[in-house]
Design a protein that fits this description.
85% of the residues lie in helices and 0% in strands. By secondary structure, it is mainly alpha-helical. It has one domain: 23S rRNA-intervening sequence (de novo design (two linked rop proteins), Up-down Bundle). Helix 1 packs antiparallel against helix 4 and helix 3 packs antiparallel against helix 4.
């Protein structure tokens, strides 16, 4: 496993843990419970699907898993934007997580593109 992969594993896990800390602040009345459930699934999905991609048995499986990580990062970003827009939590508490979700989306979007390019290149 490369140093970059290990750093990204740690970064995605930190994101999931930070999101879990944030969701404790959500209200117990609706839409709080729905947002808690969905954001928890998406944020933990980033971390654990990335771990799974690092253990992929083939390049095709790796690329597919990275695509899922990218989707989960985008969904996390969307839920954080919803929380911010609906003012369920103070904006100052959300800003760092929203920034991290945006960066993770950019990283994994580029990674998926590179993986797909490399897969196509191998086929030629």
């Amino acid at each position: 496993m490369s140093k970059e992969s290990e750093e990204l594993k740690a970064r995605t896990m930190r994101f999931a843990l930070d999101v879990c800390a944030l969701i404790r602040q959500l209200p117990i009345e609706e839409p709080g419970p729905v947002v808690k459930r969905q954001l928890t699934r998406a944020a933990t999905g980033v971390a654990f699907n990335y771990r799974a991609s690092c253990r992929a048995r083939s390049h095709t499986e790796f690329t597919a898993k990275l695509g899922i990580v990218n989707e989960e990062a985008d969904e996390s970003q969307g839920w954080l934007e919803f929380i911010e827009g609906s003012e369920l939590i103070r904006s100052a508490d959300i800003a760092p997580l929203l920034r991290e979700a945006t960066e993770l989306c950019a990283i994994f979007s580029a990674s998926v593109g590179t993986a797909r390019f490399n897969e196509r290149k191998k086929r030629r």
